[in-house]
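Subject: sequence -> structure tokens, single chain

Hey, anyone have a minute? Need the predicted structure for the following. Not urgent.
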Amino acid sequence: MSDIDYSRASVALYDPVSVNQRTTRYSLHEIGFRDIFQLNTLAELRRIVQDDAPHLIIAETADHEAEVFRLVRAIRSGEVSNNPFVALLLTSWRRDADLVRNAIGCGADDLLIRPLSNSFVEDRVRTLVRARKPFIVTSDYIGPDRRKDKDRGEGSAKPIEAPNVLKAVVTNDIEALQRAHAWIDEAQRTVEGERLRRLCMRIIVGAEAGMREMKAGRQPAIDLKEFENSARELRARMAKFRSSEASRVAKALVDIALELQEQSGLTLANLSLAKELSMAAYVAYAGDDGMERSQDEMAKAAEALQKRMAMASARKIQVEGGAPPPAELKRAAN
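Reply:
Had a minute. Here:
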């Protein structure tokens, strides 16, 4: 590998606090970066990510945490950037667990806690170049794979090698740079397909678990609004197939998700229809072979979710006037 030359790479540096921005820029300049876009608003960051495709993004979370996390998710899902795999670091003065969890959960490569030393910044950037983590895709997360080995059981999301344009640029890897566009497109198709598969599985597993609960005489503890959100995202992703049949299936799935929320709409028949429509969408993406390969995974997930639903129902019965059980659907197929 060639020596690292950070002057070849561009950086989008967002920070609404001017003293923080100057300090971070100084650290970046000291370790060799020269092409640094200094940005004061999230609107400016969004624009430059869309129009100029920087090789590294560094964004401060202060004052606008929720908005920053949403933008990172939008970048990772391909809604904003042409490169959802762009190297992306967040910064903060806060160290509390909620912030760390949200920063990691939105798909950022790392969270840097201030104050930042030049050596610390260089260490983190070098890690992005030399030892960047592979990505994983679930129904609600796209980003670095931070799981321990014990968490990678059968049926869990498979790691995906994320295109590392930052590495290619700073090491002057001509071959990687020449195929960068095709490289990103190939990985993006893999991510898109896996995200669609996971969305289908979330609905299939939730519907199957709900049906089992109803057959057992219990009210299923399903977050129906989350069910609807999954159906709507699935419809948006299926629209990219430009298939009238896929569009009809996806629209019908959204309609049934809305009907499930109506009074007396949570029925065995409606859950069964939701499951069938999701399976049809899954087959449209993966074919019958894909469905066959995923049957065991979905069956195990449905059984596990049903047990959680049953426990939630039992807790609700035990506590007179207690709050409704927690949402379980979202955890079903991740």
